[in-house]
Inverse folding.
């Protein structure tokens, strides 16, 4: 598989790119695991109780947060079954036989895409328009992705 093929495989149905995703890259999860292990090594549960620094009283919540971050991983691409297993966008594209939403005439008015706006703002819309205009090969080669 060439690099271009790999990059195309990472294009999601909604126009995002797995290589831009914190869950797919795993970096945040790895750093959270490392920080959590280091804090445990230095017994920060006890330190947080003994040292009178503002904010340390929230150590248990911080530890729970780091634990949650450590599980936010996605080892497969969207096309490979990664991401949200109940993704309605992926299901819709597969049902219609589309490589992605850029092939759909309802792309601009799609209610399914609206679920992504709180996190991705208008990135999916911009990407989908660019893919539709340029084609997936040129879009991937340009590496001008939003998000």
């Amino acid at each position: 598989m060439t690099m271009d093929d790999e990059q195309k495989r990472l294009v999601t149905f909604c126009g995002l790119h797995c290589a831009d995703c914190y869950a797919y890259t795993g970096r945040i999860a790895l750093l959270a695991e490392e920080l959590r292990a280091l804090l445990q090594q230095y017994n920060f549960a006890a330190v947080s109780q003994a040292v009178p620094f503002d904010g340390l009283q929230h150590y248990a919540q911080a530890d729970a947060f780091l634990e949650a971050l450590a599980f936010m991983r996605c080892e497969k691409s969207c096309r490979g079954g990664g991401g949200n297993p109940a993704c309605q966008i992926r299901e819709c594209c597969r049902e219609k036989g589309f490589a992605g939403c850029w092939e759909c005439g309802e792309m601009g008015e799609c209610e399914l895409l609206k679920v992504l706006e709180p996190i991705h703002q208008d990135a999916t819309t911009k990407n989908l328009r660019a893919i539709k205009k340029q084609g997936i090969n040129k879009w991937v080669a340009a590496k001008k992705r939003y998000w």
